[in-house]
Amino acid sequence: MARPQTDHEAAAEKLLAAAEELVRERGPVQITITDIANACGMSQSNVYRFFPSKEALWEAFAERWFRELNEIMEEVVASDLEPREKLYQFFARRLIVKKARFEEDPDYFNSCMILGDEHRDVVMSYVDLADHYMAMILAEAIGAGEFKGMKVDRLMTLVNLMLAPFCDPVLMVRYRGATPENLRYVIDAIFEGFGEADAVAPKEMEPLRIAS
Amino acid sequence: MARPQTDHEAAAEKLLAAAEELVRERGPVQITITDIANACGMSQSNVYRFFPSKEALWEAFAERWFRELNEIMEEVVASDLEPREKLYQFFARRLIVKKARFEEDPDYFNSCMILGDEHRDVVMSYVDLADHYMAMILAEAIGAGEFKGMKVDRLMTLVNLMLAPFCDPVLMVRYRGATPENLRYVIDAIFEGFGEADAVAPKEMEPLRIAS
Question: Has residue A205 been placed in a domain?
């Protein structure tokens, strides 16, 4: 994960870490800029130098939540994996991170889901970004001769539906079977079905290499 | 749908219809046996002849909710459709009914979801029943040479995961793409993937016939 490069970034990061701590302690409700300022021993007006509004602070909070997930997507898309393995890792690596976050502190995780519902537009911009990356992977698969006759729009919809329990953080928790191993089967089904399961036995995740 | 056969059943049905009306008016909270008795102009002790406890009443309420859905499953399982078409209709017919119920009265639908969460054990018995029927269809498909090398337990888990937005009533509403048309594609993917989409073009639902 990228580390803050400047004093300004370091101070902003400190404020966001304080906001996270407050959400962990109290849940997502009624946290003010004053609370966050106090937690950092900073004046309220000083906090506004970093975040001109509460909304700006929660946007940065969301950016911090999605940072690692976005890095995973970028890495996978830029790699030289085969399209199928790319699609698998695109979902599997984020599933593993999200599950670990949930297991580390379920209450905090659920608080972040509530914050996400309250800042729906911000979250949707990250969902759109994920769709954009997924479209790139599916286009690559189509370029490699897969999904003949299927329009990309429909394919996107179908893949999002089939993988919902592996991707939507709310469902991931509701559906215990949403494991990386089962994800492998579902990705294989997208390409060739379960018709001959010998062809879709689980395999270890391949290492990432960056496409030259 | 089966109609009440006896006076006893007719009176029980009247009480359940009154309970439904109260849930529609007030939402799922704080409805008592007294409220339901009053709505039917019946004494409280008379109501207990039909439902010995509030829990018994909500169990019957759930049975009434699931009746049509169970009849669909029974009909599809007993039909002579090919396994793939059977699996499709097993989900598609219930999806259509559930969506129609939601659209007819979204608030009532959501109230029933909350009631379902409060009576989790009752709902789970219907989920188990649905799993039982699905296992029969998948066993038939396996008997017809599909899913070679795949264990039924895993196959059940995978199919339930892939079809979650088409089956789980909470998700069905959250995922707009959960249409019968898209379901057809996903069922086809389970059997043969999207590898060659020409093979998985949507088709009209076939009529049901009972297997002789």
Answer: no
pLDDT tens sequence across A145-154: 898 888 889 9
Is residue A132 situated within a structural domain? yes
Give phi and psi for B194, each to the nearest 5: -95, 10
pTM metric for this prediction: 0.85
DSSP A29: S
Q: In this predicted model, what pLDDT tens digit does every residue of A127-186 receive, in sequence order?
A: 999 999 999 999 999 999 898 888 889 999 999 999 999 999 989 988 999 999 999 999
Contact B115, B23 (CB under 8 A): yes
CA separation for the pair B49, A47 (Å, rounded) = 66
Domain count, chain A: 2
What is the C-alpha to C-alpha distance for residues A144 and A76, in angstroms, rounded to an integer?
17
pLDDT above 90 as % of chain A: 73
A203 belongs to a structural domain: no
What is the interface size between A and B, counted as CB pairs within 8 Å? 106
B166: nearest Cα among B141, B184, B146: B184
Give me the interface pTM, i.e. the ipTM.
0.83
* Residue A89 shares a structural domain with residue A116: yes
Residue B38 sits in a domain whose CATH number is 1.10.10.60
Q: Of the candidates B72, B91, B77, which has an alpha carbon nearest to the alpha carbon of residue B188?
A: B91
Find chain A residues with C-beta within 8 A of B189's C-beta.
Answer: 158, 162, 189-190, 193
Nearest to B161 among A146, A186, A191 (CB): A186
Any domain includes A60: no
Q: Are B187 and B206 in contact (CB under 8 A)?
A: no
CATH code for position A101: 1.10.357.10
User: pLDDT-derived band of residue B135, with 50, 70 and 90 as boundaries?
Assistant: very high
Under DSSP, is residue A11 helix (H, G, I), strand (E, B) or coil? helix
Shortest Cα–Cα distance, A199 to chain B (Å): 9
Q: Which amino acid is at A151?
A: K
Residues A27 and A117 in one domain: no
